[in-house]
């Protein structure tokens, strides 16, 4: 017998045998496939079994404690699918907590069958749309996994990602700033069996040791000034998925010890807490620093380095793969100007340029040039790229200057004054547009727009 189109595989988690039996019969009568679990351990085991459920129905009061707080801790573990929670306590604060942790809806026992039918149908439709969106994004990404290019170094990197992605091994991504280390981490996640779970990224050098600990491991209410409620950390949010530690070489030494303990034992203690929690994540770390040199000088823990090292992938600098520049530039241009192209002199200018900022610099430059295209310009040329790069260029095509005689006396005087001020600022700055913009008290993008509007070269 074929299931209805809105049917799904449902994990029913409740400790009452009578409710398990009646609930399962009701759900099967609606055409759903039902798996029943009576406690947290059974629920997590069933959730990890293939085929995975499309929806979880979770009673918050679970044995052995029967404390709703214990049930709430399960919500992030099921976060990749809609989770409908219920409880015999119609507590407003409990409902808010469940929603903050990712629950799709909150119902109070006794449960109205019509309401349950409606909520389940809506949640399954949402899950189906999410699956279709993921499939569409995967199809658009194509075989390049988001790692665009045909240079030998890029081809080899993609091959390694495909080989390592399906495993659970930790990965260390090394490469210069702006070379696409996070893209590699996302490609590893997308090619892993955990791709439907969360991908969570954190920059390890952007926060102090105390704040980084709170961000990674969470905190309890009252653990420090401003901690008005319990807050799960990114490790817990990433459970079942991938945790990306960007610029791990910048991590403060006190946090290196706590990260090492988590990697060794799979447990962590939230700030202000006393009991350990568990989380299973795949760790991908990245840095532009020389970690081996940091280990030698004592600024990075040797045991942590070897825990993270698993498999090492290296992202090449853009200068090491010049053949990829045209492909990347075209991809970036089409994001802001889908119908535009790159002229021959633009491609030659890009090929001859050094890229100390790597792919990030190329992306910013090409997207800026695409944004500066005039309506009648079908392609980005070299003068426009030079303008976007902030380099003076005498051959830049610009919109014709508005004739002063077509303006009223006041408008004409103001326009002429604006031209004079801009021209004088550029001359004083030696043609440096960033400095000229600073002298005028405007942004460089604002100056570029004025140059085009006023017809100045």
What is the general shape?
elongated
The helix content is: 40-55%
Number of strands: 14
CATH topology assignment of the largest domain: Rossmann fold
Tell me the major beta sheet.
5 strands, parallel
Judged by helices, strands and strand pairing, the structural class is alpha/beta
How many separate helices?
A: 19
In CATH, the architecture of the largest domain is 3-Layer(aba) Sandwich
| Oligomer type | single chain
- Nearest-integer average pLDDT: 85
> How would you name the CATH homologous superfamily of the largest domain?
P-loop containing nucleotide triphosphate hydrolases
Proportion in β-strands: 5-15%
Question: What Rg is obtained from the alpha carbons, in whole angstroms?
Answer: 28 Å
Just give the CATH class of the largest domain. Answer: Alpha Beta
Report strand order across the widest sheet.
2-1-3-4-5
Poorly predicted parts: 394-405
Distance between the termini: 74 Å
Task: Write down the domain tally.
Answer: 4
List the helices and strands and how they pair.
Elements lengths: L8 E5 L3 H13 L3 E5 L2 H9 L6 E5 L8 H5 L10 E5 L4 H9 L4 E4 L4 H29 L10 H13 L6 E4 L6 H10 L8 E5 L5 H9 L16 H4 L4 E5 L6 H13 L1 E2 L8 E2 L3 E6 L3 H7 L4 H8 L1 E4 L10 H12 L4 E2 L1 H9 L5 H14 L7 E2 L1 H7 L20 H20 L4 H8 L3 H11 L3
Task: Describe what you observe in this structure.
With 457 residues, the chain is α/β, with parallel strands linked by helices. It has 4 domains: 127 residues, Response regulator (Rossmann fold), CATH 3.40.50.2300; 170 residues, P-loop containing nucleotide triphosphate hydrolases (Rossmann fold, 3-Layer(aba) Sandwich); 80 residues, Helicase, Ruva Protein, domain 3, CATH 1.10.8; 58 residues, Homeodomain-like (Arc Repressor Mutant, subunit A, Orthogonal Bundle), CATH 1.10.10. The strands form 4 sheets. The protein has a 5-stranded parallel beta sheet, with helices on both faces. Strand 1, helix 1 and strand 2 form a beta-alpha-beta unit. The chain starts with 8 loop residues before the first strand and ends with a helix.
């Amino acid at each position: 017998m074929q299931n209805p189109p809105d049917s799904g595989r449902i994990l029913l988690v409740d400790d009452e045998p009578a409710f398990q039996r009646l609930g399962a019969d009701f759900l099967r009568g609606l055409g759903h496939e039902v798996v029943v679990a009576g406690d947290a351990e059974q629920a997590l085991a069933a959730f990890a079994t293939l085929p995975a459920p499309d929806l979880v129905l979770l009673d918050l009061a679970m044995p052995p404690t029967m404390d709703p707080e214990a049930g709430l801790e399960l919500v992030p573990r099921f976060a990749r699918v809609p989770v409908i929670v219920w409880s015999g306590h119609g507590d407003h604060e409990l409902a808010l907590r469940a929603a903050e942790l990712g629950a799709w809806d909150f119902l109070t026992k006794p449960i109205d069958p019509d309401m349950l039918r409606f909520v389940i149908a809506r949640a399954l439709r949402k899950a189906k749309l999410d699956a279709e969106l993921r499939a569409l994004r995967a199809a658009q990404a194509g075989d390049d996994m988001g790692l665009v290019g045909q240079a030998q170094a890029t081809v080899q990197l993609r091959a390694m990602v495909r080989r390592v992605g399906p495993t659970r091994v930790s990965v260390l991504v090394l490469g210069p700033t702006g070379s696409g280390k996070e893209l590699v981490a996302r490609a590893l996640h997308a090619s892993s069996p955990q791709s439907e779970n969360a991908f969570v990224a954190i920059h390890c050098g952007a926060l102090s040791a105390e704040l980084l600990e709170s961000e990674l491991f969470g905190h309890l209410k009252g653990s420090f000034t401003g901690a008005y409620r319990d807050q799960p950390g990114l490790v817990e949010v990433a459970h079942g998925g991938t945790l990306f530690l960007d610029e791990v070489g910048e991590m403060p030494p006190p946090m290196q010890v706590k990260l090492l303990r988590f990697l060794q034992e799979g447990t962590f203690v939230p700030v202000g807490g006393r009991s350990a929690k568990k989380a299973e994540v795949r760790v991908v770390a990245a840095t532009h620093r020389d970690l081996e040199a940091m280990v030698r000088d004592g600024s990075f823990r040797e045991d942590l380095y070897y825990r993270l090292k698993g498999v090492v992938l290296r992202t090449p600098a853009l200068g090491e793969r010049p053949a990829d520049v045209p492909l990347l530039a075209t991809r970036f241009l089409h994001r802001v100007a889908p119908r535009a192209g790159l002229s021959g002199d633009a491609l030659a200018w890009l090929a001859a340029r050094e890229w100390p900022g790597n792919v990030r610099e190329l992306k910013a430059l090409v997207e800026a040039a695409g944004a500066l295209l005039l309506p009648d310009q079908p392609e980005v040329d070299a003068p426009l790229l030079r303008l976007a790069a902030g380099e003076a260029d005498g051959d830049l095509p610009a919109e014709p200057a508005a004739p002063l005689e077509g303006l009223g006396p006041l408008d004409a005087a103001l326009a002429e004054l604006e031209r004079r001020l801009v021209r004088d600022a550029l001359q004083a700055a030696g043609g440096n547009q960033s400095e000229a913009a600073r002298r005028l008290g405007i942004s460089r993008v604002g100056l570029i727009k004025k140059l085009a509007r006023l017809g100045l070269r």
